[in-house]
Structure formats: C-alpha cells, structure tokens
C-alpha cells in the first residue's frame, strides 16, 4: 500500500543540479469521522524561482475521496496537520489551486515545456495539501494514512507557465422546489493569449455522501425532509444517505464573434478532477469566457446560497492553461454575472444533464 507510513522516505531528492522532487504527505493521520478534511503545509524548497512540471498522486481509491494542492504565501499553520473542513483554513492569503486528484479520475499531466512557477517573486512560498476522506469504515483497523503527492520540479526556466483561470458565481440563489436555476458567469478576457488544456467543475452536489448517523429507523428506506435535504435511511451498516444533489451540469465556453466554443462540460457528481479540454483552442484579448452551472432546488425546503458549508452551494469552472512565460499571468478570476442577452445564445447542451 503506497500510503502506509512505514516506508522511510526523504521528502526532498535532488536528482541533478536542476531537477528535484518534493514529497508532500499527510503525516500519518487516522480519520475519526467520515467526510473529514485534513490539511498540511510544506515550504517551497527554494527561494529562487522554480517550476512544477509533474504531479504524482499517492492515494488509494478506498481511502481518499479527493486531494487538492494549493500554493500560497501564508498557510493556516506551518507545523503538523490540521482539520480544514469544507474549504476553510487552507491559507491566510488567497489560495491558488494547482492540482486536484479525485478518486477514479485519471491524474492530470502538464504539456511539455509547461510548469507552474513557484518561489522567487511569485509570492508562492508554501504548498498546502488538502485531503478529503470519505467513509471512515476503512480506518476501523486504525491504520495511519500517508497519502499525498510527489512534485517533480526544476529550476530550469520553462518556455510556458501553467496558469489557472477561476470562474465563480457569488450571488446565486437557488429557490427551494424550483426545478432549474442557472448560475451564469461571464467576463471579457483582457490578457495576452492563453491556451486552455484542462478544466475542473465544482459544486456541492451533495450526491451520495454517506453520513454516519445513528439511524433510529432500521427500515430499508425512510424518507425524511431535514434541513432542506431529502434523507433516506439505508440500513447499510447504519449509515444514512443524503440524496439532494443540486448541481446537475457545469459547462464553460469561449465566445468569439458570437460563436460559442465548448472548453469543458462535466457533471459535478463525477470526481471533481481536472479533465482534458473538449476543444484545443486559444483565448485572446477581447474574447468572452462564459460558464453556466445548472442547479435544481427540488428536494429542498430552504433557499440555498453560495457558501463554504455543505448545505450551501458553489459554482466554479476552472480553466488550467499555458501561456508564454514572457507575458506570464498565472492566476485570473471572474466573478461577474453573465448577461441574459449573452446567455440566450448558450448551446442547449449546457442544460442537458449528464447521466452518471
Ligand atoms: C465561494 C467559492 O466559489 N469558492 C470556491 C472557489 C474558490 C477557490 C479558491 C474561491 C477562492 C479561492 O481562493 I482556490 I477566493 C471554492 O472554495 N472552491 C473549492 C476550493 O477550491 C476547495 C473547490 O473545491 O473548488
Ligand atoms: Cu472529496
Ligand atoms: Cu465548495
């Protein structure tokens, strides 16, 4: 098992004057409850600028649900690990997502000559790893988990930098019971050309999160309307299932001269990893980037808004791109609502749910 903590490993290995690898592992955690999040920080091993050119995940399907690697200047803590439940407590400054591993999704590879620039004047001095554990029954034997990532790095300047364009909705309100609520985001792209190569969607489609709870009713199934979600008690080892997945499908497009070209489209119920883009395109100054999250309020009894807890929602479309290193802009984001006249031309597939 590659994540047992027995293997003694040096976290930092210098393979030659330019190339080195950095092992980032959660230091022997035993999750005590299901659906728990743990974080730990590791300093960028050089104050000079360096590039991450490859990520190697070490996690097994039956322990971690997902892992996310962030870069930032000041982590929440610099020693040990901490509980960073529900998107809180990764960094004190704005975290920058660089990698996401999700159970059953193929790991993302960067194109040749592309690297995430860190250290130097990038203001990325720490890596923060977040690991989300699913069902705690895998830890009944109280084994320690040392899942994590190995970063392949180089101090050799890369011709292209990897960057992240984050599209996020901030003011979406999902009325209870309403069948369809579209969260639309759009911005005009202002910078030098970027070349998207991967995308990631994120909503809190609660999906089938197994919530361990003392199910008083050992009935085969029992529908209860609780705090806006429909719970059903399935007597699978006394766990309850929540089935109020509200995020249905998330799509992202480039709009140029009225022409909509899909960058990515995914069901957030599927593993939230970075997937290869649908079309290999460029995005240039003057293009519009547009994204839509389709939510439903069915099965809920209360209004749902954007927020960090599992009873709130989020609507994110991430574009991982490369850009010429000479005009490097490594992070951009868009939080503007798309206009209705723009979105009246969105392709119909944006509202067709993806069967999972
Ligand atoms: C309010 C919201 O949508 N938060 C998202 C997007 C976000 C990501 C990062 C916002 C900021 C960030 O620095 I990185 I400000 C959110 O928290 N998304 C989660 C976290 O990245 C874990 C996700 O899984 O995409
Ligand atoms: Cu997860
Ligand atoms: Cu979220």
What does the largest sheet look like? 10 strands, mixed
Per DSSP E runs of 2 or more residues, the count of β-strands stands at: 25
Encode the helix/strand succession as letters: EEEEEEEEEEEEEEEEEEEEEEEEEH
* Hetero groups: N-alpha-acetyl-3,5-diiodotyrosyl-D-threonine, copper (II) ion
Helix content: under 10%
- Strand portion: 35-45%
Question: Could you please describe the fold and organization of this structure?
Answer:
It comes from Cyprinus carpio carpio. This is Peptidylglycine alpha-amidating monooxygenase. This protein has 356 residues and is mainly β. The protein is built from one helix and 25 strands. It has one helix at 340-343, and strands at 12-14, 19-25, 36-43, 50-58, 64-72, 81-83, 96-102, 114-118, 126-133, 148-154, 160-168, 173-174, 181-188, 195-202, 210-212, 223-226, 229-236, 239-242, 247-256, 259-266, 275-276, 288-295, 304-305, 316-324, 331-334. The strands form five sheets. Strands 1, 2, 4, 8, 10, 11, 14, 21, 24 and 25 form a ten-stranded mixed sheet that branches. The longest helix has 4 residues, at 340-343. The two termini are 29 Å apart. The protein binds N-alpha-acetyl-3,5-diiodotyrosyl-D-threonine and copper (II) ion (2 copies). One copper (II) ion binds next to strand 5.
């Amino acid at each position: 098992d590659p994540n047992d903590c027995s293997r003694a490993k040096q976290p930092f290995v210098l393979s030659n004057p330019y190339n080195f690898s950095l092992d980032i592992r959660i230091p022997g955690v035993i999750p005590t409850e299901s659906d728990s999040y743990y974080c730990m920080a590791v300093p960028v091993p050089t104050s000079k600028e360096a590039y991450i050119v490859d990520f190697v995940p070490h996690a097994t399907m039956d322990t971690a649900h997902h892992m996310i690697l962030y870069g930032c200047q000041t982590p929440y803590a610099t020693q040990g690990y901490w509980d960073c439940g529900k998107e809180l407590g990764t960094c004190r400054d704005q975290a920058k997502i660089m990698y996401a591993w999700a159970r059953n999704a193929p790991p993302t590879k960067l194109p040749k000559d592309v690297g995430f620039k860190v250290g130097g004047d990038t203001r990325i001095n720490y890596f923060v790893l977040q690991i989300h554990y699913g069902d705690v029954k895998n830890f009944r034997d109280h084994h320690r988990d040392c899942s994590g990532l190995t970063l392949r790095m180089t101090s050799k300047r890369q011709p292209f930098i990897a960057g992240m364009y984050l599209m996020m909705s901030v003011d979406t309100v999902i009325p209870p019971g309403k069948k369809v609520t579209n969260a639309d985001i759009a911005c005009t792209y202002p910078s030098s050309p970027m070349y998207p190569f991967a995308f990631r969607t994120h909503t809190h489609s609660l999906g089938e999160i197994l919530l361990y709870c003392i199910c008083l009713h050992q009935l085969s199934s029992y529908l209860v309307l609780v705090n806006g979600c429909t719970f059903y008690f399935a007597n699978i080892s006394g766990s309850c299932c929540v089935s109020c997945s509200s995020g249905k499908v998330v799509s992202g497009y480039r709009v140029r001269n009225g022409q909509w070209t899909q960058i990515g489209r995914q069901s957030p119920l599927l593993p939230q990893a970075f997937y290869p883009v649908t079309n290999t395109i460029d995005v240039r100054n003057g293009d519009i980037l547009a994204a839509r999250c389709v939510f439903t309020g069915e099965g809920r009894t209360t209004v749902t808004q954007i927020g960090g807890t599992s009873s709130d929602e989020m609507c994110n479309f991430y574009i991982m791109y490369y850009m010429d290193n000479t005009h490097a802009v490594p992070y951009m984001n868009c939080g503007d609502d798309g206009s209705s006249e723009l979105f009246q031309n969105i392709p119909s597939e944006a509202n067709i749910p993806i069967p999972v």
